[in-house]
Records
---
Amino acid sequence: MNRTPLGRVGQVKQITSLSNPVIKEIRALGLKKNRDRSSSFMTEGLKLVIDALDQGWQIRTLVYAKDAKSNANVENVAARTVAAGGLVLEVPQKVLGAITRRDNPQMVCGVFEQRYTALKDMHPKPGETYIALDRVRDPGNLGTIIRTADAAGASGLVLVGDSTDPFSLETIRATMGSIFSVPVARSDIDGFLKWRDARDALLVGTHLDGAIDYRTIDYAAAPTILLMGNEQAGLPAGLVERCDRLARIPQSGRADSLNLAVATAVMLFEARRHLLEV
């Protein structure tokens, strides 16, 4: 690793006050309207910042705690930020804690440009699996699903309808960095159905009244899109009737349903089991 001492990195600004305009702007990213207005979001932790940079995401601002100044990895990330045209800020621990809303914050956070994949650019191919989420509302569920999609080797995720923000801090935390590896698109219902109809892919929806055991579906026959419903309402009738297969996950206990992230994981690993077997 090429080490560049932070004292020699240009554009490093030392900020000590929470009232600084740049700090206020970063803190404002806690609200979706501000993330949308600036098309940016924040991620915390050195590993996640490095993951984002390695995956080619555009960094706008790097913030590091003054105590991390001598850390070689932080110095390297600061140099990469400057090289990418970003701003580097050195702040006290209390300022970093206020930015991340944590009592014991990690020593680094970064502000990155949002990135969505255009739905038209997703072309399901044999051996690929996509996840479509209808009106997912819980950021923890969405983040966990993105992380699971990454682990299972899914090719992308589509947010259908009014869904929670994939770039909220809560979602980013739950993805554990997988947000930088999994293409995410968004669409209304009509756009999603037109996209799906133009592609030779198997659309498998999940429903409590599904007629087919999810383990009996031939997922190897074609590219697969797993369609998962809203946490409370499930899939609407308009989407249910367009599915090629309507699957159910058998249950024997007293619980009447599974958590959305858990149900998605069960479906996803079964759909890709023929590809994951060693």
Note: The longest helix spans residues 139-152.
---
Amino acid sequence: MKLSKILPAFSYIFHPIFISLYGTLFYFLFSQNNPYEVQIYLTLIQVGILTLLLPLALYFLLVSLGIITSFTEASIQERRIPLIIQIVLFTVLILFSSSLHFLPELQYFFIGGLISSTIAFLSLLMNYKASLHMIGITSLATFSYALGIYNKTDFTNSIAFIVICTGLVASSRLYMKSHTLHELYIGTLIGIIPQICLWYFWL
């Protein structure tokens, strides 16, 4: 099977809507914080509802209203409402999740996601379409790498896997003609910089 035939799958597997849950799972798999089992389940439920299930429900509502026409190929206008929803839900999660308050590394991951989403929304107001897929996957990759350094843990294979997936997502977006190379670069910067700044200045 040619790689070009499976590239579009990476746009779905690493869609921005799944990144928060991936990051949370990664954190619990590799963090040395050792949270209680109840705390793990509570956090996963909160993240799953606020960043996956509720956005999916709202997505289908927007589709039924004709406001959005595609899950991966949204235009500049179609991106604005979902990004506003994402910003609001990230804010709710960060401010009102009692479990996240005891998991600072994970909380900063979501704060970085909130900052990246806000920057992406502001770019839309200027009619610029940065790649949301690259924002999501590079946020996850940076968080994973920083978590390894912070915990002084060697999970080179996991980082290598995420880096490879980042390249495949970028190739997928180019293959599907969803973005220009410049939009991928800008999306990468928007995803990486907030995560680096949060880890450097606050942890």
Note: The longest helix spans residues 37-64.
